[in-house]
Structures are given as C-alpha cells and as structure tokens.
Please model this.
Amino acid sequence: MPGHFPVYGATGGNGSKAYQCSDCAAVITYSDRLLSIGDVHRHLFVNPFGISFEFYTFASCPGVVAHGEATDQHTWFPGYQWSFAFCQNCGQHLGWFYEAVSKDTIPRGFWGLLVTHLLTR
Model:
C-alpha cells in the first residue's frame, strides 16, 4: 500500500483548490488540472443499468492509479477506452481513466472522478 499523501494546505502551489479522497483525505489533484471535455468539466451520465454518475474531468491526478484492462464497452466518450481509477493511498474507487484509441486524438487521456468521492478544500 502506498504511503499517505499529507495535506499541507487547502490550495496547490498556484492557489488552486485541493481535491481529496472522501475516504482517507489524501490529496488526489487540484482545481487547476480540471479539463473541459465537450466544453464542460462536470458531467452527468447514466450507465446501461440506469445508475447516474456525476463526475469532474481532470488532465492529471497524481493521487490516483488506473487499474484493469481498458475497454470501450459503454464508454461515455466516443474514441476513448476506460479503466477503473482508484485512490493511490486507500484504494477507494474514485472513477475512471479514459485513454484515446487513436494516437491522433487530443487529449490522449484524462480522468473522470466522481463528485461524491471527492472532498474539496
């Protein structure tokens, strides 16, 4: 199990807000890493089973690790495959990592992290 990510302040180096894991409070990423996909960085989608997911999209999340083989099954972003994303500190499921199928697609990858699994400080 990786070490704990201490919170030294409520903001990142440039004054951005910290996003933390709701289970262990480890710092996951910062607000300056929010990434607009389709002109928004907060998304709401429903999976094939009728379960709604609201999540933010980020360009990078140093406190998260992707796990599992990527798949394009039921992807919410055409041209992207997804795999599960977990807190690097405690292992809580935080969302998904999306990676482009084509090497020509920009961005090459991004994170979708569940609003309900993040604390904002």
